[in-house]
């Protein structure tokens, strides 16, 4: 396995971890009935976690 393949596998594991963390955070916020604080267009907003998708997919660059 060459270095490029190792980096791709590591990146995929990191992205999968980020996706799982997001899922758990949304579930936690729903349980606590606490708003999710996000930035949109450079502004900080409080969002009801029930309005958020339960999962998200991060963009993965080809290559």
Question: How would you characterize the overall build of this protein?
Answer:
With 63 residues, the chain is of the alpha+beta class. The chain has one domain. Helices cover 48% and strands 16% of the residues. The protein has one helix and two strands. It has one helix spanning 3-32, and strands at residues 36-40, 43-47. A two-stranded antiparallel sheet has the order 1-2.
Core attributes:
two-stranded antiparallel sheet; 2 strands; alpha+beta; elongated; 63 residues
Give the CA-CA distance, first to last residue: 15 Å
In percent, how helical is the residue content?
40-55%
- Side by side, the strands of the main sheet go 1-2
As a whole number of angstroms, the C-alpha radius of gyration is: 15 Å
* Coarse structural class: alpha+beta
Number of helical regions: 1
> In percent, how much strand structure appears in the residues?
15-25%
What is shown here, in short?
Helix content is 48%, strand content 16%.
Strand and helix layout:
Layout: H1 3-32, E1 36-40, E2 43-47
Antiparallel strand pairs: 1-2
């Amino acid at each position: 396995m060459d270095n490029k393949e190792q980096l791709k596998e590591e990146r995929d594991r990191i992205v999968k971890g980020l996706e799982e963390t997001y899922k758990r955070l949304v579930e936690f916020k729903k349980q606590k009935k606490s708003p999710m604080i996000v930035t949109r267009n450079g502004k900080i907003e409080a969002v009801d976690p029930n309005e958020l998708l339960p999962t998200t997919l991060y963009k993965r660059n080809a290559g």
